[in-house]
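$ run holo --ligand "adenosine-5'-diphosphate" --emit tokens
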Amino acid sequence: MYKYATWLLAAAAAGYALVSSSPAAAAEAEALTTEQVLFVANNAWMLLATFLVFIMHLGFSALEIGLTRSKNTVNILFKNFLIVAIGLLTYAGIGFSLMYPGEDFAGQFFGFAGLGLTAPANGMTLEYASGGYTYWTDFLFQGMFAATAATIVSGAVAERIKLSSFLVFSTLFVSLAYPIVGMWKWGAGWLDAAGFHDFAGSTIVHSVGGWGALAGIIVLGPRIGKYVDETIRPIPGHSMPMATLGAFLLWFGWFGFNGGSVLSASPADISLVCVTTSLAAAAGVMGASVTSWFIQKQPDLSMALNGALAGLVGITAGADVVSPGASVIIGAIAGVVVVCSVIGLDKARLDDPVGAVSVHLVCGIWGTLAVGIFGEGKDFIAQLTGVAATGAFCFPVAYALMRGLKATIGLRVSEEEERQGLDHSEHGMESYAGFQIINP
Amino acid sequence: MYKYATWLLAAAAAGYALVSSSPAAAAEAEALTTEQVLFVANNAWMLLATFLVFIMHLGFSALEIGLTRSKNTVNILFKNFLIVAIGLLTYAGIGFSLMYPGEDFAGQFFGFAGLGLTAPANGMTLEYASGGYTYWTDFLFQGMFAATAATIVSGAVAERIKLSSFLVFSTLFVSLAYPIVGMWKWGAGWLDAAGFHDFAGSTIVHSVGGWGALAGIIVLGPRIGKYVDETIRPIPGHSMPMATLGAFLLWFGWFGFNGGSVLSASPADISLVCVTTSLAAAAGVMGASVTSWFIQKQPDLSMALNGALAGLVGITAGADVVSPGASVIIGAIAGVVVVCSVIGLDKARLDDPVGAVSVHLVCGIWGTLAVGIFGEGKDFIAQLTGVAATGAFCFPVAYALMRGLKATIGLRVSEEEERQGLDHSEHGMESYAGFQIINP
Amino acid sequence: MYKYATWLLAAAAAGYALVSSSPAAAAEAEALTTEQVLFVANNAWMLLATFLVFIMHLGFSALEIGLTRSKNTVNILFKNFLIVAIGLLTYAGIGFSLMYPGEDFAGQFFGFAGLGLTAPANGMTLEYASGGYTYWTDFLFQGMFAATAATIVSGAVAERIKLSSFLVFSTLFVSLAYPIVGMWKWGAGWLDAAGFHDFAGSTIVHSVGGWGALAGIIVLGPRIGKYVDETIRPIPGHSMPMATLGAFLLWFGWFGFNGGSVLSASPADISLVCVTTSLAAAAGVMGASVTSWFIQKQPDLSMALNGALAGLVGITAGADVVSPGASVIIGAIAGVVVVCSVIGLDKARLDDPVGAVSVHLVCGIWGTLAVGIFGEGKDFIAQLTGVAATGAFCFPVAYALMRGLKATIGLRVSEEEERQGLDHSEHGMESYAGFQIINP
Amino acid sequence: MKLVIAYIQEDRLDHVLDVLTKAELHRVSVTNALGCGAQLGYSESYRGARKRVNLLKKIRLEIAINDDFEERTIDAIKEGCQTGKIGDGKIFVLELPRCVRIRTGEEGPEAIG
Amino acid sequence: MKLVIAYIQEDRLDHVLDVLTKAELHRVSVTNALGCGAQLGYSESYRGARKRVNLLKKIRLEIAINDDFEERTIDAIKEGCQTGKIGDGKIFVLELPRCVRIRTGEEGPEAIG
Amino acid sequence: MKLVIAYIQEDRLDHVLDVLTKAELHRVSVTNALGCGAQLGYSESYRGARKRVNLLKKIRLEIAINDDFEERTIDAIKEGCQTGKIGDGKIFVLELPRCVRIRTGEEGPEAIG
Ligand SMILES: Nc1ncnc2c1ncn2[C@@H]1O[C@H](COP(=O)(O)OP(=O)(O)O)[C@@H](O)[C@H]1O
Ligand SMILES: Nc1ncnc2c1ncn2[C@@H]1O[C@H](COP(=O)(O)OP(=O)(O)O)[C@@H](O)[C@H]1O
Ligand SMILES: Nc1ncnc2c1ncn2[C@@H]1O[C@H](COP(=O)(O)OP(=O)(O)O)[C@@H](O)[C@H]1O
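-- output --
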């Protein structure tokens, strides 16, 4: 915040990598071009989007604790907080390099540009990404995405997974599986070549996380007391305010998730994307509310929240290529689908405390296919291929990882630990010290 | 997030409506002008403002649940969450078209440009709004505003209104009453012609909501147990942390509410507006805290929170035309006024659990009139006209709607439902499952 | 939101001080230069940063209440909410003028440009800050920083300090001590001349607050029941969800704290700063988690949260001049240091409920010194000088203020008030009305 | 002396305290409770699955009294809580052989009030 | 009549209610409690300092019954809560001379059920 | 056997548990409670309206003991809670005819400890 710098204007515009800010170097900057200024605006927009994606992690944390019991709250918060850290660090270490290997290193299915972050020579200039952003912005925006995929799993396996096993799983999943699949599409791999369209990641991010979640709940089994004899015994979440706060923040963050995926601040594109995103979320809320009101006789807040997320996941693949009208349809269907999916999974005795599989996997698939229906000139078969390929890769990998952990360090806490709650057994800490809570 | 697009820069700058992004069309874009780049920056600012207004809905939700009882929390959250969805969808359907009919359709008092959203031919270009934003941005920013007016009502009628009736009321109020009044000023109607100044909506948004809130609490009557015999029995809110979080987020969102109302990123304007907004909020906090400390002998946190909002509502009409010094005066007076109004309404047995009428209506009026006092060249009579006309239209409309609902589907839950709490009777759900709470 | 203004584009670009927006004046604006557009983008970025710093105050509030008992929650919220108001108003009154006296008024150690805010003639133009931002933006960004220093103290002295005394202390500290030290570096004073580097304020903001916190806890003494006989009796915080929400929001806000301290939207600079900031935070989380897992045998969520903040404070001094790799090292060490410091202070019977001294003072010092180690061409001795000078000024001043208050109006609540909780004794209000809580 | 325990509906608490006060019964202890009895529970729906809730929110009163206050206390509780609807609650009266006021060490009937 | 008080483990609550219902004991009141007993507490670590927690979370049941239900009730609680591990809990049985149903004013054995 | 019930001030809890432990009374159950008694309530102000709060936060102890521990227990509670200020609380002692340890099924004096 040194205020008397006279070189600021020139330096900023010239867009040099002022890591060791050298006024001298910048001073020679010639006349400022419009492209350079556009670069400044684009890059600032991309960082704003990055910040918004970051805050989604608070959204996920709040939603997850809200929909689970207070005796596992510290554990869930710890997992979600650490995942952001692990996600960023591993993405810096290898993920970014796996996902965007660049032309020199890319295969169709796999590429790796080396360990760590090294800004290319043109990394801070217009050339790097057609003036959309710098190399650092690129990394950070992508890094925030990476952690999201792992966080999705967290909600589904909550209240019974061992902390250490979860951390190992997440680290591997987010640093290997996620970037490899990501590369197929966004790293200019084979899916991209096949004409697959996934704007901001209904498949590449959400389904990837969703497949991990599905594998997790299959291998782990349901929470004790969820399915007794022939009946489903719902286990109510302990804080609807936190769950709602989480859903609001996720919607808020999604403006960055989708808005930033335009990769520039192009007015027509980012504004269309924000509109389709909002309308799909709104329609998702209505679709889920009406469906749950109809099925459950009373409107279920947790379903309305899931509806918003369903609409958001659903629109993520096609936010840039569908009309606002189509986005309403996509969102509304996602809202209906998510409620049916939550109820259906429960019937199938797959215990997903927060509805992660329904929201991220089922609606991720729906959204991806919807591009083939509503997106002008988009190929349904290509969309189907993307969906199938992702599932065919991610589910087995996640399943194998989970089984491997189960066979070695163990995947699930003991029955007694689960009954006491993971806050006690894993952390020796209370989430709401002093509050009198009956947690059967 | 396809990273190898070479057309990004050009496309963004050219500002074409790339709904089905056509590289070919964009490729012909000529040299990038400074106006085009300014358009990019302005539009990004407007979207940032839109996101901030969105998060105000979380702020409202948190404030409202914080200041009410835990047995009505799910209900309030559900209402607030749905309102955002309903607000956006109805605004897309008819509201936007009613509020900004455009020159071709506008009368002085009413205009309607047709159902649904249709981007005009120049909607994505500099021409649409002098390079301030695109048509989509315009809709989304305005749509976020619309839902606000309905949400204001929600807090005042909380803990006793029937969910279905509230949703019907809100839908009609936000899709008809709000845009019609809005059109008088912002849609270039008669109030605008009369020289009325209401920068971001002390009257057009906040008072409109406030009149609805006043009508609501008059028709509904107070909560059971609030006024017993001759005494006022305060009903304490169940979570001061949530209330405070709400107030902080509202302040945060107000930077977008007011900052975005500049309708461009003009440095002098947006920075002045943010400064007057902040100083008025700060002065509102001090005004309310000192007043409540004086009257109540101890400083009341809920009053300090209301004070911030009072300052914010107060400055909203004139944030662009008053000096920072004047904004401190406006805010401080708003802070004093809100405390007196809360206490006065209680004396008049008008039960407003969160102080919505005091904050939005009373301070909305104060702020609008203050423009006539502190705004250079502003006409006090015009301000008074705007205040009176809004009241003369909105209060009867809201009152009639409320009475109509009362006479038909019923407005208020039964006494037993109210005693049990609306979470139980309307949703069959607990807000804090497991927590032991005594809620007399 | 008057939408038919044709002068918007021109006015925004020309960057005139349109306090009483005069279309006439703006109309004569000549051709829009790239510098003017860059000014628009830079200024918007700076305001975004300002908003993010603002929301840090919610982060601090949530973190502090989360780590303390529910019987003092209203009090902490009230303090934090008021501090923002007091901070902004006093900074407008004298702080800004003390901290940035400008060339005409500056000494090496002290300067004062007069009471109140007066925009200089060029305050809304490119000239004011090389096109980085306007005078109003400048004030608001700096004002948000100012309140931070006082808020840091709040957490350390929580649960026992008298409300009135705290408010007096904060007002004096934030309006005098903070800007005077700030001026030494950022106001072009002697520390700046000495080659001291403190990018966004590891020392100038965080250590200043930290010294105040240290003085506070020394003069106040520990909370009743914390140190009994030979043992340390931890007093668990009442809401880990709130604490976590606070830490997430602080991290979120820090993007503005550091990102805005670039004082322009220069792509290379802001993106590097955001990357170093994030990586240091992530490394801080890992450092603290591993350390606490090792020492405490189980991973302590509150330590992980402190670790993130430790990393953030640590990187604040050098975010612009260290490589991402170095930022990981700085953050990781900060994470280790903060855990050791928390435990060490407890051993020394210095009772700091939220770890403010460890996070802000200890890691602030570490971060400042780290610039001398990792920052290319930075002088370790200059860094040491800055650290020492700040301590030598702030600690005695804070200590004297605290002692003075103790001797006059009293600094600490009575034992009975402390046992009952400050919510009761200072505010007569409950934080969670109806909840059954055992608070021994 | 007697120890009177009563389970009542949550929303009668304020009223019963008023009635007790009028009957010059100024000492009462109150605890939250959950109860099942003749009153049927209800079923909630959470995320599409139905949940029977049999434990309803109740308030538990505990009042120590001298023998001659027994009827008065029971009448006051009845007056304050009787609505005639299932779920009004129960009163249990136990013998209380000993009572001590901690502050003074007083025992017996003097210590009750 | 008797008043049965039992302290049990939190996670046995659902089960014991099922068993009681099967034994045709439909009326129970439940309160949260903290207890120390033979079961050792544990030590938590908060911000690096260790904290002994001796008060463990328990559930308190209170059941008023007619005399002939005494054994049945105690057996049901035992069945529902016995795991053989320290901390299973205790049952205390008191004499209950009087019982009143608030709704009807009924007294004695009829008022219990 | 006896069942001792005590209402005490919230902030005496830690201390009284220490004293009980020293008196070799290791088994106690604790519940949150609200109480009104000789101690005057206070009045709060919420949003400008005054509110009388008569129900103050208290802690309820329940201790089952063998007869020969009665005095010791009462003395320990007195020692731990007596400050001489109004609001210190009350001790109620009931006859406890029967006590069962769920884990072992033991009954009577052996089951108490
Ligand atoms: N036998 C009993 N033992 C313990 N608690 C009882 C008993 N009978 C009633 N209660 C308590 O009283 C409450 C009200 O009793 P209930 O039978 O529902 O209504 P009513 O007394 O009107 O028939 C129950 O929820 C329970 O808490
Ligand atoms: N003498 C007693 N007085 C009061 N409560 C008791 C007594 N003994 C046991 N309890 C309650 O029962 C719970 C379980 O008792 P504990 O001694 O730990 O296990 P067990 O009964 O298996 O030996 C305790 O936590 C306490 O709440
Ligand atoms: N007769 C009683 N019945 C039930 N609870 C009582 C009775 N007397 C006192 N208490 C409980 O003990 C607490 C302290 O009693 P109080 O009369 O205020 O103080 P003191 O015992 O010092 O005179 C009360 O808040 C209440 O919870």
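-- notes --
DSSP finds three helices and seven strands in chain E.
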